[in-house]
Amino acid sequence: MDFTLEVAARTTVGRHVSGLRRQGLVPGVVYGHSVAPITVEIPGREFAKIFHRAGRSHLLQLRVEGERASRPVLIKELQINPRTSEPVHVDFFQVNLLEKLTVQVPVVLVGEAPATKFNAGELLHLIHQLEVSCLPNAIPGEFDVDVSGLAEIDDAVRLSEIQLPEGVELAAALDPEEVIAKIAAPRVQEEEVATEAEAGTEETAEGGESAEAESASEDS
To answer: Domains, the chain, ranges and CATH?
Structure first.
């Protein structure tokens, strides 16, 4: 899928960028290996649409006004206003299409785990992103992990079960046996077991206190 974003070179810097934001523009910068950095201004609405669809893992084609060729970029960093949830600043990393990158790709659970249908177990999503190495044009948008085979407690899907696209490799530090998603005992059940254990401990303690009291009474 091709994502193209039209931007303009930016001359406004420093304190004056707040004026750009009032105009619905987002300040940004483009940089990369052997690339002279440039500052840009981005239409806020267009950026929001692209980011919603592309996220951080899809390659974007950045068209800078006045330049003949588009720039292949990834969203490297995005600053958000915590009060308004509006983007404040965007860093774009310009990539070399012939050089491999290491990127984080989202992990999405698909399907329904049979163990959750009748509250027999709780589905835990343990890994939400995977670090992979590949060429920029081969970056997966996401990894879909099917959980429809998880029927019993302790059933799990591991990294080794993910089907990687051609040319995509998991980061060397990742353990193939690491669990992405698993079925755990329901929390209510765990709480009941914990409560019963606590009750048993209290009864044992009370029994011990009673025996000590009886022994003290006999000694007196």
So the answer is: 3-94 (2.40.240.10), 101-185 (2.170.120.20)
